[in-house]
Amino acid sequence: MNSSQVGSVIPSSGFLTRTMLPVTLPWHKMMQIAELGPGTGVFTRHIQRNRSSGSRLYLFEKNETFRKQLARRFPELPLFDDALRLREIVQKTGHPFDLIVSGLPFANFPYELKEELFGTICDALADNGTFVAFQYTLLLKPHFKMHFPAMDTGYTWMNIPPAWVFKCKKTLH
To answer: What is the separation of C-alpha 100 from the centre of its chain, rounded to a whole number of angstroms?
Structure first.
């Protein structure tokens, strides 16, 4: 398993899940949802429980071991090997994503890949869409802010390791 592809060896806690994806989200309005780097499927399970029955959830997982596990656990969900394919899904469905959830370890990625991912996420997100991601450091806050000027930052100690949560809104230029 490539360590640059994995953010943590311990699955995310329920506290982190509820910080990132509170039940107060307007789930009924989210028709197209993507999860980037679902890993073991902790957020996936939560999204599955809360999303509306008419919505679509797409998973993007680079790690082959996790992809096989996810395919077994969630056989009904489309599963892709690269988050850079977000635009492709938008083109195929004709619908941008209302919610993009990320467990990607951006701090582990080279600058060029981070830029490409942030650009892809921005392009694939609906005008009123939300991008929510967690990181184990605040070092990337300026990077998030550069791409998503409308951003709230949260934190949870109740995760191993503790995590920062970035809730970003796409702004129109």
So the answer is: 5
Question: Which residues make Cβ contacts (< 8 Å) with residue 29, sequence separation at least 6?
Answer: 98
Q: How far is Cα of residue 56 from the mean position of the Cα atoms in its chain?
A: 14
Taking 3-state DSSP, the helix, strand and coil percentages for the chain, each rounded to the nearest 5, stand at: 40, 25, 35
Residue environment code for 46-66, b if the CB has 16+ CB neighbours within 10 A, otherwise e: bbeebbeeebbbbbbbbbeeb
Q: What is the tens place of the pLDDT at every residue in 50-107? A: 999 999 999 999 999 999 999 999 999 999 999 999 999 999 999 999 999 999 999 9
Contact 44, 69 (CB under 8 A): no
Cα torsion 48, 39, 95, 107 to 10°: value is: 140
With a CB cutoff of 8 Å and minimum separation 6, the contacts of 114 are 106, 140, 143
**Angle at the Cα of 133 from the Cα atoms of 130 and 74, rounded to 5 degrees:** 90
Distance CA 102, CA 27 (A): 17
What pLDDT digit, counting tens, does each position of 94-120 carry?
999 999 999 999 999 999 999 999 999
